[in-house]
Every structure is written in structure tokens, then in C-alpha cells.
Amino acid sequence: MLEARGITAGHGRAAPVLADLSLHLARGEILGLAGPSGSGKTTLGRVLAGLHPPRAGRVTLDGAPLPRRGPCPVQYVAQHPQMAMNPRWRINRVLAEAGPPDPALAGLLQVAPDWLDRFPQELSGGQLQRVALLRALGAAPRVLVADELTASMDALSQARIWQVLRDLAERTGLAVLAISHDAALLDRIASRILRLP
Amino acid sequence: MTGRLRLIAAAGLAAALILAVALASWGLGARGIAADFGARLLPPSPAHPFGTDHMGRDLLARSLHGLALSLRVGLAAAGLSALIAVAVTGLAGLGRRADAVAGFVTDVMLALPHLLLLLLLSFMLGGGTAAVILAIAVSHWPRLARILRGELRQVMAMPYVETSRALGRPRRFVLVHHVLPHLAPQLLVGVLLMFPHAILHEAGLTFLGFGLDPSRPATGVMLAEAMRHLGAGRWWLAVFPGAMLLALVLAFDLLGGSLRRLLSPAEVRL
């Protein structure tokens, strides 16, 4: 389904952080992405979601490049979700940017109704991660790039969120690229793990 | 009193002064406009605190009329200038090529000496109120546009803008809902700080004979007329209208400066 071939990417004129990297993500698969800090995990996630243009290589979904208009079928949930939310908007408006949120999914992700009237800076890191995930899923993506998605959550919440994503992967065929430093977590949730040097 | 309260007090005082000038002229009616040749060139006295001019008109009333006129011209010129600056900034937000065009036009306009441009435009447009407003607006938008474009580029680089685009929102939505509200405080302060500049230019242009109609009670007209009588010791003809203009300009400067500090994230702890 999602295919990246010969990706070379970096920042500015510095040496590339990713060189000639290829990967394949199948429908309904949860692929773990591990590697030390600075190894290019986030850069790869952003390249796959079409947010960072690679210097070389291409990303295709079912053989076609990612569309330039409309909601991107590969959604990226950032490591620091507060930066990905307009600080002047309340959470209900933030969520509505991807369309009306699904109340059942909001319940599963434990996004409480009383958060909706707050501003992003009034929520904790874990709460913001859930809001960012609910928003990304609201765009009905085919692939989700989850960058340290549950890093700010306690073990119980972490397990619950990943259970929801596994169910979604099974039920709807959503493919997930799970980027994490937590090797134990990736061992538990991913069907295979790609390690960056 | 904390720094923040002091700033709010300064802004309130300046706003009150500006409002008082605007209302005073309205309440004066025709006073200071009709000639009284029996009271020509009288020095300041309780009956005429600012003295009278060569046609016997009360200078206090005339100065207030002049400032009110300056306020109207300044408001129109600063407003029109801000509209042009916002339009150019909006163009810059439409894409990389449009941004390059907007940047080029702004840089070209900034490279032209704005006083010369102001004089040329006012002369070409034949003088008068509309010409002064247009000349000030056309020669003054680039500085504001440069500030707004800088802010625009900063906001466009924010991850939430990128996310909005990834969620399928078109560029225009991003511009209207994410970027413009962020630019509003900068725009407000920019317009307020452009106001005194516009007022000074209006008076300068009028003083040089390229501005408002000499029959109108404008500060520039009063100062130009005063030049002929200064050698004869009629100092009040220039000092009072000049000081009033200076006070109004300082009030705007204080209001704009206070607002800029109040809205600046760096001053949040004040």
C-alpha cells in the first residue's frame, strides 16, 4: 500500500539524515520505527506524510503519489502536538478542522467533553496527544504516522490508545507507522520493526 | 503602579486627548472660520487664549478645526495604506511566486525616497484632500507590508498551518482563519503608528503648498500663513498650532507604542 523508494532527506544544506531508504507498509499493518535520537525517524515520518520534501526518492500510495489537494491519506501526529494546534483556537474548533469528530471514537480515546472549551495550552501533553490523534483520524487516513504518540501518557492510557489503534487497523485496514524510543512498546504493538542506524 | 497599568493609563490618556480634539471641532461649529477684521493679529488673551490671525479668526478654535481635519485625513490615509498593505500581504500568502512578486514590489517602493514620492504624487494628483490622502497611502504602505509579510512567513512556517493543509484545508482558509487573526494586533499597532506620520506629512505637504486647499483651517495652512508674520513678532501664529500638532502626534505615538508593548509577548510579564 504505502511505498517509499530510495528516500534521501535532510535539512538545509547539511548532510542528509536519511540516505537511500526504502520501506513498505501493508494495509492494516503496524510497523515500528526505532533508532537513536537524530537518526531521522521524525524526518522519515514527515516525508511519508508529504510534509517534508525528500532530496531524492518518492513516496506512493497504491502506486500513485500523494494527492496535493484535499485531506492527505497519510496523516502525521506530531511528537509535540501543541505546536500543531492554533493557540488562539479552542479544542472543539481544533478538532472540527478535520470535520465533525466521531463521538464514539472520542469516547474510546478518552477525549473528555469538558476539554472542548479549553485552549491547547490548557491541556496536558497526554491530553493533547489524544486530541491530535482524534483529529488525525477524523480525516479518515489510510496511513497514520504516530510520532512518539503515547510518550506523555501513563502505562494504562498507553495500552488503551494502542488497543484502539490495533482494532482500527484490523477493522478498517488503517496502516500505522509507530515511531518510538520505547523498544518494549514497539515489541508489543508492531508486527515488525525497522531500525534506523 | 505596575508597568502594565502605566501603559494602559498612557494609552487611555492618549486616546482621551484624541477623542477630545475630534469632539471639540464638532462642538465649535463655524467659530474660527468666519473672519473678524476688527480683531486682527491679537496676542493671546483670556478672550482668545491662542490669539487671532491676520483675518481676526480665533486661533484656538482654528487649531482645533485643523487638528480635527488632520485626524480625518490621517484616518483615511492610514486606513487606505493599511488596506494596501493587507492586500499585498494576502497576495504574499497565496504561494511562493506571489510572495516573490509581493516582496519585489514592496522592496522597490521602499527603495524610493518616500518624501519625494509623496511630493510627486500629491503634485501629480493636483493637490486637495483626496490627493493628500492618496499620496500618503500610496507612499506609506510598504513599511507596514514588510512587517506584516515577516509575520506572515513566521505563521506560515508554524506546524499548525502545515497540519491544516494536511487536513485538506485550502490555502485561502489557512490565510483567513489562521494567519490574518494572528496579524491583527500587528496591523492595529502599525496603523496607529502610521497615523501621526500621516498627520505630519499632511501638514508638511499643505505647508509647502501641495496639500489641502488654503481656504480650509488646516494646521499646514496656518503654519504657512504664520511665516509671513513671524518677522513682525507674531510668534503665537506658529507656536500654538505647531504645539497642538506636536501634542496630537505625541499622543498617537504614545498610544501606538503602549499598545505595541501591551501586545508584545516579550512584555507579558509587565
Automatic annotation (TrEMBL), chain A:
InterPro entries noted in UniProt: AAA+_ATPase, ABC_transp_ATP-bind, ABC_transporter-like_ATP-bd, ABC_transporter-like_CS, P-loop_NTPase
A GO MF term: ATP hydrolysis activity
Domain ABC transporter: 2-197
Keyword annotations: ATP-binding, Nucleotide-binding, Transport
Record GO biological process: transmembrane transport
Matches recorded under Gene3D superfamilies: P-loop containing nucleotide triphosphate hydrolases (3.40.50.300)
Top-level division of the source organism's lineage: Bacteria
PANTHER family: ATPASE COMPONENT OF ABC-TYPE TRANSPORT SYSTEM, TRANSPORT ATP-BINDING PROTEIN
Protein name per Swiss-Prot or TrEMBL: Peptide/nickel transport system ATP-binding protein
From TrEMBL, chain B:
Keywords: Cell membrane, Membrane, Transmembrane, Transmembrane helix, Transport
Signal peptide extent: none
GO terms of biological process kind: transmembrane transport
A Gene Ontology cellular-component term: plasma membrane
Residues annotated as domain ABC transmembrane type-1: 67-256
Positions of transmembrane segments: 73-94, 115-138, 187-212, 233-255
Compartments (UniProt record): Cell membrane
Membrane topology qualifier: Multi-pass membrane protein
Family, as annotated: Belongs to the binding-protein-dependent transport system permease family.
Protein name: Peptide/nickel transport system permease protein
UniProt source species: Salipiger marinus
